[in-house]
């Protein structure tokens, strides 16, 4: 009976530690997405934080004319920087993100992110992330445009 109690206690502790680590990873992932992607690219935030949030091999994948398109992070950052320098980016309302799903398995994660502007859903994004030595980094994105 004594050994059964010890086994149950150890299992409960393992579950509690695992759940705590999972919550910590979720918060870290949400922070990477919020600071680097939402604030950095959608709300004209710090592009250095944005670059640090994305893996250099990142690609934004889309479908145009029934063909798969790829837009690497270095091109996305450069076009964002140029729009800001030319003052072509006239956005005044802020983009707000909701995170209905973040699923983590080991060092891999997927996040469903809903983006809203003026209380209207504009995008649903699916971001893939990996945990590297430096932390969680966004490695790819697919999306649906609601506009």
- Number of separate domains: 1
Determine the N-to-C terminus distance: 63 Å
Biggest pleated-sheet summary: 6 strands, mixed
Low-confidence region ranges: 13-18
How are the strands of the biggest sheet laid out side by side? 2-1-6-5-4-3
Q: What share of the residues lie within helices?
A: 40-55%
CATH class call: Alpha Beta
Tell me which CATH architecture applies here. Roll
- CA radius of gyration: 19 Å
- Outline type: elongated
β-strand percent reads 35-45%
> Count of DSSP helices?
3
Number of strands: 6
Structure write-up:
41% of the residues lie in helices and 42% in strands. With 147 residues, it is an alpha+beta fold. The chain has a single domain (2-145), classed as Nuclear Transport Factor 2, Chain: A. Strands 2-1-6-5-4-3 form a six-stranded mixed sheet. The longest helix is centred in the first third of the chain and has 41 residues, at 2-42. It is elongated and about 75 Å long. It starts with a helix and ends with a strand. Mean pLDDT is 89; it is low at 13-18. It holds the Pfam family Lumazine_bd_2. Keywords: Signal. InterPro entries: FrzH/put_lumazine-bd, NTF2-like_dom_sf. This is Lumazine-binding protein.
């Amino acid at each position: 009976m004594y050994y059964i109690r010890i086994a149950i206690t150890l299992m409960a502790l393992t579950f509690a530690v695992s759940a705590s680590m999972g919550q910590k990873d979720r918060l870290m992932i949400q922070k990477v997405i919020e600071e680097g992607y939402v604030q950095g690219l959608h709300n004209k935030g710090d592009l250095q934080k944005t670059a640090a949030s994305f893996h250099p091999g990142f690609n934004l994948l889309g479908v145009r004319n029934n063909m798969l398109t790829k837009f690497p992070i270095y091109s996305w950052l450069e076009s964002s920087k140029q729009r800001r320098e030319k003052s072509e980016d006239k956005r005044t309302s802020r983009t707000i993100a909701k995170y209905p799903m973040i699923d983590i398995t080991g060092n891999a994660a997927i996040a469903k992110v809903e983006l809203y502007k003026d209380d209207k859903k504009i995008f649903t994004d699916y971001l893939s992330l990996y945990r590297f030595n430096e932390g969680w980094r966004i490695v790819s994105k697919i999306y649906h445009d609601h506009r």
